[in-house]
Design goal:
heterodimer, A: alpha+beta, Uridine Diphospho-n-acetylenolpyruvylglucosamine Reductase, domain 2, Uridine Diphospho-n-acetylenolpyruvylglucosamine Reductase, domain 3, Alpha-Beta Plaits, seven-stranded antiparallel sheet, 18 strands, 36% helix, globular, B: alpha/beta, Glutathione S-transferase Yfyf (Class Pi), Chain A, domain 2, five-stranded mixed sheet, four-stranded parallel sheet
Chain lengths: 466, 480
């Protein structure tokens, strides 16, 4: 069926205000935050309810039109880029916090709510929603759930998956499925909630979510440990965890990252340091004090030149915000920043950092490395220029080696950014052929026409017809 | 040629101008992280990616790359941008969006066939009116005549006012009373610093900085004896400020004198050129920039003081404006380094130690001037001054850094969005219910007055310029 016929049907379902096909609108929904990824959709639709999402999906399924669900477009793996054209479905009209249930400690939300809005809303009631991806000021909860986003607090509190109790989703056939509920326990059949979380919009379109909340920790302390070289910082991370301390946050920045971040944020980071660790602990005051004392001692023993405590919550917040800006700040040096989030077991973090530096030197590249050291999740970010084809090729080669190394160390190709289109060729490296078969079987069962975010997760070798 | 063909030709010409004048590196520097989205007023209102800085840069880049023509939608989106530049301080990559916007608007302006009406308005505003002080005085004089002769009352009373379009109708209602042409014409050129002639009472109960009182007194003694000024500064008067808002300019100079500054007000200075620049009239802006650099460069001053964020932000960008003219680039740089807002210069000169500020007890809030905050990077100084006034209970306004919708002449051209933004602003104001909203730029001041009128709050609150408010506080403080 032609695009204009699909458009007419969508207009009949949603009204003409919420179906767009202007060149302008198609262009601004042709990208996300992934470097070098851009593909034009045919249409942009803005549903206002689960029922409207159903109507859209039915039309698309009948006409075999691809649908890409999109929040704020902060995705870093090309997950929200409409690589096979079709319809981009946005959630700016479905952006309400539906219900706070203080008896069950749950929050029911629509997918278009901004993550930070959720965090601020519940914290005002002394409750806590821990997942805090760096893009939380912009990202939507629907996007976080679909990507199973991590964040700075993942070390102690886990990731988005650990805070999703139930979902309402529209399947490819237009049917609505409700999974889980306001339940602490629920083993009725397969855990479809967990299947949908992190499925990158390929199995269903999430239209409502029940989130788990926990009590807001009483206090929090923040320190900045400064090192002359990267190795000692990485060793400190392993030492802290080996000593059975799980800090809320343990973020790592290498010298190149410290410099760009300080250039942007002016928060007083030591630009001559080889690396810093931003470490936070929260909880009861006596526990926090005890842990921080032990952490400070361990860092010093491991060779930190100083361990400074943030004097106020404002100062701590400035440090956290500065860390969250790290990736974008890298673009101050060179226009194209290509980052990955290979993840290794925590004990291997020092080895991984060394390998990254060796690979970088081998391919003569500029790199900024930062990330969630406590999670074994680093973001090596190559600084390059998309216009320099030769260098772009070396970047690709370097990343392949980094992926290989991560897997060799028992790690994964992506810790929190998702496979999307960018890492689809490498998924098999991690999960093997049998893993791919299982995933494909699930995909085919739920979306036989392959209309939900096609071109993601699975790598299709294009046949060359000469 | 058909109409469509003419349009097509025009769009191709605009695209070519994009390719010639847009900074490719700057376009590439946007890595599309989206950190700018929550800072953009038009995105906050529309939630549309197209109305965000990231979206607008993507559109500019698509035109630049030849992927799309600058069609009506693209042009409308460039027009909808307020140019408030709130996206710049929040951009970790340091993309200079304001420059890209100006380049893109310039490319459109130079190649778009303007309607006769638009041509006439542009000619009037950019060639005949703003660059010409005499004409500015004449127009202001007409407004004064309108206000003084009873015509305004008559127009409002008889309903004849309704014949004007809404934007103009609102404007005429909120314009400040204009002073006489004689006063506008005879401006002071040199002003000496003054010594505050009141004694600071150490025992005064409510004084916030009792600890400093002794030093204040010592300094007062010292300054009575010393005849040299703390600073020698030049005053950038501005075209609108020096006519329509002349009393605010007088207040600004008085405050500088009280802070111990000698003030020079060179009469050869011109309009800053911001209105030209923001509307894509870059050649006109460059001429004015050169006139101003010449007017100020030999004065041997420590600072050039502005009291309008909109002007200041354009003045600090002269080095960028003239970067391609080698004989001017260095001179522009020297000029730019001296530009400072009145609030910053007052604090640097020790104003708070010299002058006691006091007003009847009231709740006060501050609406940032976007360009003062985002381009001149001045946001704390005005707040510090306000908080130092005895009797002022300062409340921070939610989204104080979000544009009020004034944005130069935006509120006349994009009335719908401007009204949405001022109404949003007034909802936050209502949450505080201040007696006074302080601003730091004439456009913001008028827009806040408009907001108060639209919300029907004229009886409950006023909007004032920081300089007028501080002078009132200084004079009241002197009397106490």
């Amino acid at each position: 069926m032609s695009v204009s016929a699909v458009k007419e049907r969508l207009i009949a379902a949603l009204g003409s205000d919420y179906v767009h096909d202007s060149h302008e609108m198609r262009l601004v929904y042709s990208y996300d935050a992934t470097p070098g990824m851009q593909a034009m959709p045919d249409l942009v639709v803005m549903p206002g309810s689960t029922e409207e999402v159903q109507a859209i999906v039915r039309i698309c399924n009948e006409t075999k039109t691809p649908i890409v669900a999109r929040g704020s477009g902060t995705n870093l793996s090309g997950g929200t880029c409409p690589v096979e054209a079709g319809v981009v479905l946005t959630f700016q009209r479905m952006n309400q916090i539906v219900e706070l249930d203080e008896e069950n400690l749950t929050l029911t939300v629509q997918p278009g709510v901004i993550t930070q809005e959720i965090i601020e809303y519940v914290e005002a009631k002394e409750l806590f929603y821990p997942p805090d991806p760096s893009s939380m000021k912009i990202s939507t909860i629907g996007g976080n759930i679909s990507e199973n986003s991590g964040g700075l607090r993942g070390l102690k509190y886990g990731v988005t998956r650990d805070y999703v109790l139930g979902l309402t989703a529209v399947l490819a056939n237009g049917e609505v499925i409700k999974t889980g509920g306001k339940l602490a326990k629920d083993v009725a059949g397969y855990d479809l909630t967990r299947l949908l979380v992190g499925s990158e919009g390929t199995l269903g379109i999430i239209t409502e979510a029940i989130l788990k909340l926990i009590p807001l920790p009483e206090t929090k302390q923040t320190v900045l440990a400064i090192y002359e070289d990267i190795d000692k910082a990485a060793q400190s991370v392993s030492a802290i965890i080996a000593n059975k301390i799980i800090p809320t946050t343990m973020e790592f920045l290498d010298q190149a990252t410290i410099k760009v971040v300080e250039d942007y944020a002016h928060v007083g980071l030591p630009t001559d340091a080889g690396a810093v660790l931003l470490i936070e602990q929260d909880g009861a005051p006596e526990v926090v004090a005890r842990d921080m004392e032990a952490i400070t001692k361990l860092c010093t023993e491991m060779g930190a030149t100083s361990v400074k405590r943030a004097g106020s919550e404002e100062e701590a917040n400035a440090l956290r915000s500065a860390r969250r800006a790290a990736l974008s700040a890298c673009a101050r040096l060179k226009p194209t920043t290509i980052l990955e989030d290979a993840t290794v077991p925590r004990s291997k973090i020092a080895e991984m950092v060394r390998a990254i530096n060796e690979i970088t030197a081998k391919y003569q590249l500029d790199i900024c490395t930062f990330g969630h050291a406590g999670d074994g999740n680093l973001h090596p970010t190559f600084l390059t220029d998309a216009r320099n084809k030769a260098e772009m090729h070396r970047v690709e080669q370097a990343f392949e080696e980094i992926f290989a190394k991560a897997i060799e160390l028992g790690g994964t190709i992506t810790g929190e950014h998702g496979v999307g289109a960018m890492k689809a060729p490498y998924l098999e490296w991690k999960i093997g052929e049998s893993g791919i078969q299982v995933m494909r079987a699930i995909k085919t069962a739920l979306d036989p026409n392959n209309i939900l975010n096609p071109g993601k997760l699975f790598f299709e070798k294009k046949e060359v017809v000469s | 040629m058909t109409r469509e063909a003419v349009k097509e030709k025009e769009r191709t010409a605009i695209q070519k101008a994009f390719q010639e004048s847009l900074d490719e590196d700057e376009l590439m520097n946007c890595m599309r992280c989206g950190f700018c989205l929550p800072a953009c007023p038009t995105y906050l209102e529309t939630k549309s990616e197209a109305a965000s800085p990231r979206g607008r840069i993507a559109l500019m880049k698509a035109v630049y790359d030849g992927k799309m023509l600058p069609d009506d939608d693209v042009q409308a989106q460039l027009d909808l941008c307020l140019g408030c530049r709130a996206c710049e301080p929040v951009c970790p990559s340091g993309v200079k969006y304001g420059h890209l916007l100006e380049q893109a608007r310039g490319a459109v302006t130079r190649n778009k066939k303007q309607s006769l009406k638009e041509k006439a308005v542009r000619r009037l505003a950019f060639k005949d009116l703003f660059p010409n002080k005499k004409r500015m005085r004449q127009v202001s004089g007409l407004i004064r005549l309108y206000q003084k002769s009873g015509l305004q009352k008559l127009a409002e009373g008889t309903g004849a006012i309704k014949l004007l379009p809404e934007g103009m109708r609102n404007m005429q209602h909120i314009l400040p009373p204009v002073v006489s042409a004689r006063l506008m014409k005879h401006r002071p050129e040199q002003l000496k610093h003054v010594v505050p002639h009141y004694q600071v009472s150490v025992s005064k109960g409510q004084r916030q900085y009792d600890l400093q009182a002794a030093t204040v007194e010592q300094e007062h003694m010292a300054s009575t004896q010393a005849s040299s000024p703390v600073k020698r500064v030049a005053f950038f008067a501005g075209c609108l400020m020096d006519t329509m808002f002349l009393t605010t300019n007088d207040a600004t100079m008085k405050l500088l004198q009280m802070a111990g500054c000698d003030v020079v007000n060179p009469q050869t200075q011109a309009c800053c050129g911001a209105l030209h620049g923001h509307s894509g009239e870059l050649a006109g802006a460059r001429d004015l920039a050169k006139r101003n650099i010449q007017a100020f460069e030999d004065l041997q001053v420590d600072a050039i003081v502005t009291n309008a964020g909109g002007c200041g932000a354009f003045l600090v960008d002269y080095d960028h404006l003239l970067k391609d003219e080698p004989e001017w680039a260095e001179r522009a740089k020297a000029f730019v380094e001296k530009i400072k807002d009145i609030s910053v210069v007052l604090l640097e000169s020790g104003f708070l130690d010299k002058v006691q500020l006091s007003l009847p007890s009231q709740k006060v809030t501050f609406q940032d001037s976007c360009h003062l905050r985002n381009v001149m990077k001045t946001s704390e100084a005005p707040r510090t001054l306000l908080k130092a006034i005895e009797g002022v209970e300062y409340h921070e306004l939610k989204e104080a850094g979000v544009c009020c919708g004034s944005a130069g002449i935006y509120n006349l051209l994009q009335e719908e969005m401007a009204n949405q933004l001022i109404d949003r602003k007034m909802r936050h104001v209502q949450a505080i219910q201040p007696q006074t909203i302080v601003t730091a730029n004439p456009g913001c001041l008028l827009q806040m007055k408009l907001g108060i009128t639209r919300a029907g709050l004229e009886d409950q609150m006023q909007a004032v310029h920081l300089a007028d408010f501080l002078l009132e506080a200084a004079e009241a403080g002197r009397g106490s």
